[in-house]
Design goal:
Blueprint lengths: L5 H7 L3 E6 L6 E7 L25 E3 L1 H10 L3 H13 L4 E7 L4 E9 L12 E2 L2 E4 L5 H21 L5 E8 L8 H14 L1 E2 L9 H8 L18 H20 L8 E5 L5 H12 L2 E5 L3 H10 L4 E3 L9 E7 L15 E5 L12 H13 L3 E2 L8 H12 L5 H26 L3 H14 L1
Parallel strand pairs: 6-8, 6-9, 7-8, 10-11, 10-13, 11-12, 13-14, 14-15
Antiparallel strand pairs: 1-2, 1-4, 2-3, 4-5, 5-8
Helix pairs in contact: 3-4, 4-13, 7-8, 7-11, 7-12, 10-13, 11-12, 12-13
Bound molecules: nicotinamide-adenine-dinucleotide.
The site of nicotinamide-adenine-dinucleotide (NAD) has 27 residues, from helix 7.
Amino acid sequence: MEQSLFAPLREEGLTTLEIRHDWRSGRVALRGAREWPDDTAWARYGKDFGYLDLLVDEPVHLGHRETLALLERHGAGDHLARVIGRIREGRHEGMLLFLNRARDIRFAYHMHSSRLGIRNGRHAIRAGGIRRHEPEEDEFGVLVDGLNLSRAMSYKNAAAHMPFGGSKITVQCSPVDLDDGEAVGFLAYCLDRTRSVTGPDMGFSPGLADAMKEGGYSWNITGGFHNRIGPTGGPTAYGVFLAMKEAAAFRWGSPSLAGRTVVVQGLGAVGRPLVEEHLVKEGATVLVADVDPRPVEELCAAHPDRVRPIPLDEVLSAEADVLAPCAVGGILDEDTIPRLRCGIIMGAANNQLKAASPEEEIRLARLLDERGILFQVDWVHNAGGVIAGMEEYLRGEDASLENVLAQTEKACRDGTRENLRAARAAGVTPTEMAYRTHGERIFG
Ligand code: NAD
């Protein structure tokens, strides 16, 4: 039987499943509901109706026991238990699922923490990106991806002094046509229900933010092509570069990367400016890899004396001073760590350690430390993007790139320096130090 929480909703004509978790008491509460009809005109969201409107004449709301019984009746009980297990493990606030049955859009909102945003005086109390997965992907893997990313967002927002808790949205659906008001309107409605502010992540174009705002659907999204401060990849690359120099200074006594070899995995919105705007200008030798051959060819052709290609399967085992993961997460685990031959790992990718909890991340970080590799958990230094998004959300027309870069320097450069020094003084890994420093603000 399909391991899905959405399948029972689809079969029972429901739209909503809420899983709430109180990490202090361990209590879990379920709610199932039918909150809109299948023929809702989502293209009219934000014009003819809002996210607080009641959209059905006779809404269905199921309590905890009824919802649990319904899921078990459809064979989803084990799957639910595994999902709740992950929610408990990461001390998450829960998950909110919305199903568009007519278009098969499966929207999952992963709530990690609202603590830092609950009194911020805004509609949005949590912040984190929106990521698309293909419809045929394994649902458990998608939900775990969202949970892990939402947890990292809580810490990233805390470390960057943002007045928001952490969350993430995952959507399983076919690629979204930005002129398709039915799909964009539905995503905007769901977003507004979450009380979060988001920005397009992998699988969604920055154009989604422009389509939602300019189409009058939702204002709780940032990072479009048309925003005042430009795409988030630039500030993220800047923060990673500054952190890399701090790590070099800590490790080798000089922040200069001139003459150093840096491997960059992934040449997208972050990896490309990291190479072109920073590493090449710094005088580093850069080895680049991407599953898409085009950016590799373009960068090597533009900078033949500094940039060279490296085969995809040699990225992790390449002998280099620095490895900068700027593509997928989950690349560092018991299998890959023994193969590494770099001195420092410092990159933009979220959740580089393959782990479901801070405890597991700290354990893997110790393995890196034992191999003599300087590493700190990514959320300490990849906050440039969220800083840019929050500048846009909080300051609107007054948003400025100067503010973003200044805050990025404070969070990513100064934050890395302080974290590395504190870790050395305490005799723990930088990853453990970062969790000690910021965990207290989220859970204390
Ligand atoms: P992107 O989608 O623009 O680029 C990712 C690039 O990696 C693409 O060119 C893709 O072809 C390539 N890629 C995918 N799998 C690969 C693999 N196995 N090996 C080599 N290349 C591969 O994404 P992005 O915005 O540049 O983000 C990169 C990473 O940084 C992601 O993990 C993202 O979550 C994280 N991040 C991004 C930002 C931001 O502001 N964009 C902020 C913080 C963290």
